[in-house]
Specification:
It is built from 17 helices and 27 strands. By secondary structure, the chain is of the alpha/beta class.
C-alpha cells in the first residue's frame, strides 16, 4: 500500500532474515572479534571479543576465551578494532508519532526552522507538500510555532495553503497541534465547547469563541482520535517498522515508549509475531497532558496489557503521567496534588511502574510527595518510579531522588539557554542539575524524547551532557512560548564560549552508562540489556569513533557503523 505521507530517505540497512511473512527469526550464533568493547559492567568494563549463542551472550573477554565458548559454525564478525558498547537504550521516545512524522513534512531540523510567521516560505512548503499527494486522507507535518496569543498562528494560513484536505502540524514539543479548518471539522471541533473539560481547556479560541486552529496539551487527544483511524493498520505497521530501523541506525536497540495504549501495544505485538521487530519496546499507558481517570475500562486495559505483553520484544506494566505540560509561557498544571497522589498510590498498589513528566519545580515536589506516600502506603517492593525531564528541581528535593529510589529521566539535548528553562528570568534556580543528581546517588536514564528532538541522535545528547553549551536559534527566537533552545532543536547554533553552569557537566562514561545501565534499569530490563555480560541479550552497537578518546568536536559526530540485536545485524552503514 503506498504511503499517505511524504517519504524521506532512511539510512541504508543490512537486514538479515527479516520478512513480513516469517515468524520469530531463528536463533543467532555469532563471534565478535578484534574489538575495543566497553561492557558497562563495573567489575570487568573492557573486553575484546564476545561469543553469542541463540541470541544471548555466552562469554566476554579475550578472543582465546570466547572462541572456546562460541558455538560451532558461529558467524564471525570482525570489529576491526572499533569500539563497541551495549546497545543503547533510549529511555523515553514516542515511537508511533516519531514513525509517522519520519515520513511527513519536517520544517524543524537542526539546519533550519521554517515557522508560520515566515509566511511565504511556510505557506509554500505546506502547499507544495499537499500538491504532491492530492489523494492523501490526512497530511502530517512538524514545525515550531507559538502556543499563546498573539504569537500563535491562525488556521487561515493553513486554509490558504491546503483548502481541501485536513493537515495536522505537530509542534516540535509534541504538546501542540496546528491544524486547518478541514482538520477541525474532521475532529468535530467547532464553536461549541468539547464535552470533555480537559480537552476543551486546550482548544485555543478567539474572542468570539471560534477555534483558532491551535490545540494544546490534552486537546490533541480529540484530533488523534479522528486521525489515527484514517491510517490503515498495515500502513501503521510499515511506518513503525521504518521508525524502528531509523532508531537502529543510531545504535538504539531498546526503548521505553513514553505514551501509548492497548491498541498501540497490539501493533507491536503483531510485528513481533511476524518476526519484524528490530527494537525492544516497553510501552507506557498515557497521553500528552491528559489526566488519568481510574475507570473500569482503563484498569481493564492495563491488566490486559500486563498479562499479554511481558517478553523481550513487547512489554507493558507501565503508566505515564503528566504533572504539567509544555506550552504557554510556563507549563500548565494537569493535576491537583491530592488527586494525583490518590491515583499514584492506587496504581502503585496494583504493582504498576510509574513515570511522570515534569518541567516545573513545584511539579517535581508534588511528584516526590506522591511517590513517597505510595511507598509508605503500599510497603516495600521492587519499583521503577521515574520523573521525566527534571529541568527544575527544588534544592531541598535533590536528595529525595536517592532516598526514595527515583530515576531521573533526562534529555541533555534540551539544554541549554542562558536562562535555563526560561520560564522566569527572575528565578535563580539552576536547571538540569545532572552532576548534583549523580553525586547524591540518583540514577540517570538518558533519552532523546524523539520526535520532540530531531534526529534521535544519542551522541548529540551525550556531547551536550559533557559541555552544557549554550544554544540559540534566530529562526525560533520570536516564539516566546518555546521551543526549547537546545542542541538538537530547529535551527539552533552554539553560542561561542558560553556554557550553562558547567559545574553540572557529567563525564562521557557517566553519559554512556546513562544510555546503557541506567536506562536499562529504568526500563526494568537490567537483567537482559544494558551490559555485555554472559546471559544477557546480545545487543551491541559498533561505533565510528572511540568516544572515550574522541575530542569534544568529534564526539557529536560519532555514529553507528553496525547495530546488532540478539546477535543479528539489523543496521550496517554503507561506509
Amino acid at each position: 500500500m503506498p504511503s499517505i505521507f511524504r517519504c524521506y530517505r532512511v539510512l541504508p540497512l543490512l537486514l538479515l532474515a527479516l520478512s513480513s511473512a516469517q515468524a520469530e527469526p531463528p536463533s543467532v550464533d555469532a563471534l565478535l572479534v578484534h574489538g575495543h568493547v566497553y561492557t558497562a559492567d563495573p567489575s570487568h568494563p573492557w573486553a575484546e571479543s564476545i561469543a553469542v549463542k541463540a541470541g544471548r551472550i555466552m562469554a566476554v573477554g579475550d578472543e582465546r576465551t570466547t572462541r572456546k565458548a562460541a558455538p560451532k559454525g558461529a558467524t564471525v564478525i570482525d570489529l576491526g578494532g572499533r569500539t563497541a558498547l551495549p546497545g543503547l537504550v533510549d529511555a523515553h521516545v514516542h515511537l508511533l508519532f516519531g514513525s509517522i512524522e519520519l515520513e511527513g513534512l519536517n520544517l524543524s531540523t537542526p539546519a533550519k526552522s521554517v515557522t508560520p510567521d515566515m509566511t511565504e516560505a511556510f505557506e509554500t512548503a505546506i502547499r507544495d507538500y499537499a500538491l504532491s499527494r492530492p489523494h492523501a486522507p490526512v497530511l502530517i507535518a512538524r514545525a515550531d510555532f507559538g502556543t499563546v496569543d498573539p504569537i500563535a498562528p491562525n488556521h487561515a494560513v493553513l486554509d490558504r495553503a491546503v483548502p481541501n484536505q485536513p493537515i495536522i502540524v505537530h509542534n516540535s514539543s509534541e504538546h501542540a497541534l496546528y491544524v486547518n479548518a478541514r482538520a477541525l471539522a474532521l475532529a468535530g471541533i467547532g464553536d461549541s465547547p468539547l464535552s470533555d473539560p480537559a480537552e476543551e481547556k486546550g482548544v485555543l479560541r478567539d474572542a468570539s469563541g471560534h477555534p483558532t486552529g491551535v490545540l494544546i496539551e490534552a486537546a490533541q487527544e480529540t484530533m488523534e482520535r479522528a486521525v489515527l483511524p484514517l491510517i490503515p493498520t498495515a500502513e501503521k505497521l510499515r511506518l513503525i517498522e521504518a521508525g524502528m530501523r531509523h532508531l537502529n541506525s543510531y545504535g538504539i536497540t531498546s526503548i521505553v515508549n513514553a505514551t501509548g495504549d492497548l491498541a498501540e501495544l497490539d501493533l507491536y505485538g503483531a510485528l513481533r509475531d511476524a518476526g519484524r521487530m528490530t527494537l525492544r519496546t516497553r510501552t507506557a499507558f498515557g497521553a500528552v497532558a491528559y489526566p488519568h481517570r481510574l475507570s473500569a475500562n482503563f484498569l481493564a486495559d492495563l491488566d490486559t496489557a500486563r498479562e499479554k505483553y511481558h517478553d523481550e520484544w513487547v512489554a507493558a506494566n507501565l503508566v505515564k503521567f503528566f504533572s504539567d505540560g509544555s506550552t504557554g509561557l510556563a507549563p500548565p498544571i494537569v493535576y491537583q496534588a491530592s488527586e494525583y497522589k490518590r491515583i499514584v498510590t492506587e496504581l502503585d498498589r496494583r504493582g504498576y511502574d510509574l513515570m511522570t513528566h515534569a518541567q516545573r519545580g513545584d511539579s517535581v515536589h508534588m511528584i516526590l510527595d506522591a511517590y513517597d506516600a505510595a511507598i509508605r502506603a503500599n510497603g516495600p517492593r521492587s519499583r521503577r518510579l521515574r520523573i521525566e525531564h527534571d529541568f527544575l528541581i527544588p534544592s531541598a528535593d535533590i536528595s529525595r531522588y536517592h532516598e526514595l529510589g527515583i530515576i531521573a529521566g533526562i534529555q541533555p539535548d534540551f539544554c541549554c539557554q542562558t536562562l535555563g528553562t526560561g520560564y522566569d528570568a527572575n528565578d535563580p534556580t539552576v536547571a538540569d542539575r545532572w552532576r548534583t543528581l549523580l553525586d547524591t546517588g540518583a540514577t540517570l536514564a538518558m533519552s532523546t524524547d524523539w520526535p520532540c528532538s530531531w534526529p534521535p541522535d544519542p551522541w548529540v545528547n551525550i556531547k551536550q551532557a559533557l559541555t552544557r553549551q549554550v544554544w540559540h536559534s534566530d529562526d525560533t527566537g520570536p516564539i516566546l512560548s518555546g521551543p526549547f533552545d537546545g542542541a538538537n532543536q530547529g535551527g539552533a547554533k552554539p553560542v561561542s564560549g558560553e556554557f550553562y553552569h558547567p559545574e553540572e557537566r557529567i563525564t562521557v562514561r557517566e553519559a554512556i552508562d546513562g544510555y546503557t545501565r541506567g536506562s536499562a534499569y529504568a526500563a526494568r530490563a537490567e537483567d537482559r540489556v544494558g551490559q555485555l555480560t554472559p546471559g544477557r541479550l546480545a545487543d551491541v552497537v559498533v561505533l565510528s569513533t572511540d568516544p572515550f578518546s574522541a575530542s569534544l568536536e568529534d564526539l557529536g559526530h560519532i555514529h553507528a557503523v553496525m547495530t546488532i540485536v540478539g546477535g543479528r545485524v539489523v543496521y550496517q552503514a554503507e561506509h
